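worker-03 picked up job from queue 'complexes'. Input manifest follows; two sequence lines, order preserved.
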Amino acid sequence: MPEAASDTRAAIGDSEFDRDTAVTRRAPGVYDIDLSAGWTIISAVNGGYLLAVLGRALADTLPHPDPFTISAHYLTASQPGPAVIRADVVRTGRTLSTGQASLFQYDEQGAEVERIRVLASYGDLDALPDDVRTTAKPPAFPPMDQCFGPEDGPAPVEGSSAITDRLMLKLDPSTLGWALGAPSGKGEMRAWFGLADGRDADPLSLLLAVDALPPTAFEIGLSGWVPTVELTVHVRCRPAPGPLRVSLTTRNLAGGFLEEDAEVWDSADRLVAQSRQLARVRLG
Amino acid sequence: MPEAASDTRAAIGDSEFDRDTAVTRRAPGVYDIDLSAGWTIISAVNGGYLLAVLGRALADTLPHPDPFTISAHYLTASQPGPAVIRADVVRTGRTLSTGQASLFQYDEQGAEVERIRVLASYGDLDALPDDVRTTAKPPAFPPMDQCFGPEDGPAPVEGSSAITDRLMLKLDPSTLGWALGAPSGKGEMRAWFGLADGRDADPLSLLLAVDALPPTAFEIGLSGWVPTVELTVHVRCRPAPGPLRVSLTTRNLAGGFLEEDAEVWDSADRLVAQSRQLARVRLG
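worker-03 finished. Artifact:
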């Protein structure tokens, strides 16, 4: 077979993201995975990558293929390396099925420590009727060539930035003040988003997309870590090929917590995913 | 003891809502409850009432008192009558603890049928710092005496409306077109909200407040049933005494599903709760 040309885009199912989220079924509902160090940021494994890993295990366990709504509570910080997922069917219906999954790693004594617990309802996006009656409009985005990625400047965050090598991330300059020492004060972050190897988006990679931008907290002027407590994603439509636009908004920072809402729009101007997370603000 | 005057407001802990959400611990993590028929609408037990019932069981099971984020997946339709709740601690931390709970009822053979499963992280609202850096603004609401409740007109919905006797609900006339046969087409619903017996709001009753208004689908022009698939509530602040303002928004109806976002504002103009649900549209 000829070698792929260097401009060949990775296909869905045969990309870095697919290899790094692949789970191996050890027994019914029990899956092994080696969490890749390639999806870390600062010292943590990215929460969207972890959600995609759990989403794959649930897709294997449940009779329906696509996460319609998935809620994750993040319990302890995951590390690159071996992990086991235990997934169960909660209920099976004709249109929707519901499942639960937990990801565990091991402490120094070899005991299982739970990292994340997830509840999700799955369906089949391709079986949905085509009706769309929406008032949602895509946010205004500058063209991609007027946006900036990590490769366009000095790394503004200390620590690992491995995940940035795996993403095509082009930030709207109006939400980039934080990287220049002048955060806007507004809780907004917007970016064109894709996978670096050109793999198109699918419902599973949308779980990554909602949690892959710099946190809105940076633009609010907070420089500390913002660990996710809980993240819920609704996947509303199979995304069209091409880059996504991801828009994050925080309206309420109070009592040391903030919400971060994400909208993901595809190249056909459809709202393909919505998410909200509750995160803690750890002031440096 | 003298009888209470008829204008006495029910106190938190001694109101109809408190009595109807009270769970009885049968064993550690196992609670009995008789679901009240007083919180039904059409043929279903209200999803917010059910969430409050599960929230009470979790408050008893976990070391922290208040639901910071609670995600419920609704599996089968609950009926008034006996139910059992099984609750477990997932993880205990200093600031937050995480728990899981399920509500079961019984089929004709007496077998348990799971109605709802919940994952939640609890904390202590009173222990949070006072910092507020928010850009969220309360939505415009007409004064309460310019809003309308179920008692102001003929019941627009067929079936049980028992829950309306337990609520103080005054709808913004600009979101009342559906009741007059002229829905606005906008996915909005706004109401002043309280409990009919005058009990003030607390974190538990906020779980009811986010799911107690007529669905936004009515204003979109859909008259069918809109069952909740999943509902996640963030409680952000202990509400001040006095009526609440609840604002619902739906932006995206597609493929037979819609999201419904709720904001709850207290009398001190603080955003005390945010929620989002994914619901199915059942076209008549």
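worker-03 released lock.
The longest strand of chain B covers residues 81-92.
Residues 1-5 of chain B have pLDDT under 50 and may be disordered.
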